[in-house]
Amino acid sequence: MDGLLFYCPPLLKSMGGVQMPSLLGLLLREELRLVKPITRRLSIQSSRKAQNQAGVLMKKGLAKKVQYFALSFPSFEASIARRTECREEARAILYLQGGSYMAGGLNYSQGFGGILTRQTGQDTLCAAYRLAPEHPFPAALEDALVAFDHLLSLGYAPENISLAGESAGGGLCLALALSLKKKGRPLPGRLALISPWCNLTRSEEDYAAMGVVDPTLSGEKLAKASVLYGGDDLQSPFVSPVFGEYAGFPPVLIYVGSQEYLLDDAKTIHLLLEEAQVPCALRIAEGMWHAYVLYGVPEAKTALSEIGAFLRGEAIAFDCQILNAQ
User: Fold this and answer.
1) Active-site residue flag, 167
2) Is 286 designated active site?
3) Structural domain tally of the chain?
4) Which of 98, 91, 70 minimizes the C-alpha distance to 308?
5) Where would I find the H helices in the chain?
6) What does the pLDDT look like over 18-60, one tens digit per residue?
7) Is 236 a catalytic residue?
8) Which residue out of 22, 290, 299, 306 is catalytically annotated?
9) Of residues 77, 260, 299, 306, which has the active-site annotation?
10) Catalytic pick from 109, 162, 167, 226?
11) What pLDDT is recorded for position 18?
12) CATH classification at residue 34
């Protein structure tokens, strides 16, 4: 078992052209729904502790495959995840973790960052950026930029650096690339986003009006986290990337579940990318929940396989075109 992500034989069924969730996926989704009343009441500190513990579990499954090397930055903790065998030296990944901009320490960042390294053979910079409410916007974006610049200082060409992140981290990947674009700087080569949080202007009532039965996310907590992180800047594209301009962006691969509040965020970003003629793909997993790719279900294994190929520069079928290996 590799951390929280382990192999299970595919149990997917097709119904009317729609791929149905696996049995394991259905069971885990209902378990998550049952514990949601407990998780939604967790304090910020308790959420941080729980998320870091999840990272510890993921790292245990990677102990013989991935090593971690500490990095020192003035404002945040970070490390490099490196595969012990068959390392690809030409490319690297900057991983930005989720957690509503309020949770997700170094252990958690190392957990999924290590899984990305295992999948690709590439070094992954795991950046535990500063968190709200102690450090609101633009702290996370500033730290992400420092981490990106560090990879450049190691000799990686911008086009050989990929950005990857889930939830808030997915939105932060977009914000970082938008910031680089505004500064007139070269952009990263690819973005892999899992359930990206891209519209922080929504209220608790907005989430309730969606009519979505989300088994993990709380509309109330999302709305509160938005204000604690973004303050008066919620309509800034560097806080809410749905307000960004995407002409000239690198290829983007997006994964999202059909049963989550952030499905509309993913669809909106995908539409903006298509309008800007950016090579992009949106994968909506039927019956799956927020950031399902981080869980041990068959659908996660399928997603990780394609994400790994995408980050390695292999040919990927996009919605409008084929992205050739570079």
Assistant:
1) yes
2) no
3) 1
4) 91
5) 23-39, 44-60, 106-120, 139-153, 168-182, 204-209, 219-230, 263-275, 298-311
6) 567 888 888 888 888 888 888 888 899 999 999 999 999 999 9
7) no
8) 290
9) 260
10) 167
11) 53
12) 3.40.50.1820
